[in-house]
Amino acid sequence: MSTTKTLALWVAYGTNGVAGSIRHDDEGYTVVMAGSDAATGTYPNLASAKGALHSRMSPGSAWPMFREH
């Protein structure tokens, strides 16, 4: 049995509210879009995770505001 410890959490806010989140743990930076139970992917650094989250938003969406929690 293994456990994963979340080291940090960022919430992405778009013009219509929460767009998704990024969780940093031992595996990397995991992106979960708002309203989804499943992760869309895990990335090696925060910059690539932010880009991946933005690319999954509606076409033409502005870059979201990321807040660390």
List the helices and strands and how they pair.
Blueprint: E1 8-14, E2 17-25, E3 28-33, E4 41-43, H1 46-55, E5 65-68
Task: Provide structural commentary.
The protein has 69 residues and is mainly beta. The chain contains one helix and five strands; from the N terminus they run E-E-E-E-H-E. It has one helix spanning 46-55; strands at 8-14, 17-25, 28-33, 41-43, 65-68. A five-stranded antiparallel β-sheet has the order 4-3-2-1-5, covered by helices on one side. A hairpin with a 7-residue loop joins strand 3 (28-33) and strand 4. The mean pLDDT is 94.
Give the tags.
5-stranded antiparallel beta sheet, mainly beta, globular, 69 residues
Beta-strand segment tally: 5
- Our estimate of the beta-strand percent is 35-45%
Percentage of residues assigned to helices:
10-25%
How many H/I helices?
Answer: 1
Instruction: Identify the quaternary structure here.
Output: single chain
Overall SS class: mainly beta
Mind describing the biggest β-sheet? 5 strands, antiparallel
Secondary-structure element series: EEEEHE
